[in-house]
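pls design
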């Protein structure tokens, strides 16, 4: 049993609560609580504040056993560039990677954070750039995508384009290097060639779908209306067919692809409807 699981079990007993009582309070199954305490699965990131509040501890203590930070994830800020705290996400990804024995992900995390140091996302709040790959990694883990190559490629997917690192110099295996190379924009390729090459690689495909899902979700705070329209058009022309192809070609990810497709189409449809109402 890992330290996180041990702390969950210990603090529950100290609060004199049964696993059934915890499950009822958190609106999850008894089996979920049992699996958490045995270290076989981890709670989703948005459940951590609820668990901490229930046990009257901090999320820092749950994740690390320490009480160093008082920063918490803010889930109530509307239209904010930063929905989650990047330090908290970093700890979450690291904890999951250690628990699931994703050795490459563990080593890549500090590497990606160091290379993106000083870079910020587009938007009003100048959010550190590492926020983007960390949020993608959290999303992937929450979807059950605990593939070491996929999570590592997610964390590195913008390194070559934004930090000037050659794919062959990345501290990962050849499969991950190839995936990062494929998702890195190449001016010598047409857009059609770019997406075709991605579609033929399962790791690159999942990284691209997660990346687009994340970017579409953040468009309202960082994109101009013209760029939102262009992004929607590109999504419908290239990402939707990629989703359909991936569903058949990479059936092991069918559940994750369904959820990504649902999220993407929901956001795009809502934005298109909004633009239609504004035009009427």
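designed seq:
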């Amino acid at each position: 049993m890992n330290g996180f699981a041990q702390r969950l079990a210990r603090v529950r007993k100290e609060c004199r609560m049964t696993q059934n009582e915890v499950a009822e309070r958190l609106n999850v199954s008894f089996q979920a609580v049992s699996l958490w305490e045995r270290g076989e699965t981890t709670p989703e990131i948005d459940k951590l504040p609820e668990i901490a509040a229930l046990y009257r501890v901090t999320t820092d203590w749950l994740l690390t056993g320490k009480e160093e930070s008082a920063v918490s994830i803010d889930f109530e800020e509307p239209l904010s560039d930063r929905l989650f705290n990047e330090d908290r996400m970093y700890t979450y990804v690291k904890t999951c990677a250690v628990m699931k024995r994703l050795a490459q992900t563990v080593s890549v995390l500090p590497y990606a954070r160091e290379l993106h140091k000083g870079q910020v996302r587009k938007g009003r709040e100048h959010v550190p750039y590492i926020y983007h790959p960390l949020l993608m990694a959290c999303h992937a883990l929450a979807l059950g995508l605990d593939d070491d190559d996929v999570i590592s490629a997610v964390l590195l997917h913008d390194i070559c384009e934004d930090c000037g690192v050659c794919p062959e110099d990345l501290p990962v295996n050849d499969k991950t290097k190839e995936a990062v190379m494929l998702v890195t924009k190449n001016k010598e390729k047409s857009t059609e060639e770019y997406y075709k090459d991605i579609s033929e690689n399962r790791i690159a495909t999942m990284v691209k779908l997660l990346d687009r899902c994340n970017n579409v979700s953040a468009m309202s705070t960082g994109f101009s209306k013209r760029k939102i329209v262009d992004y929607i058009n590109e999504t419908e022309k290239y990402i939707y067919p990629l989703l359909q192809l991936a569903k058949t070609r990479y059936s092991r990810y069918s559940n994750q692809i369904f959820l990504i497709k649902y999220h993407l189409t929901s956001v795009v449809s809502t934005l298109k409807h909004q633009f239609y109402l504004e035009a009427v």
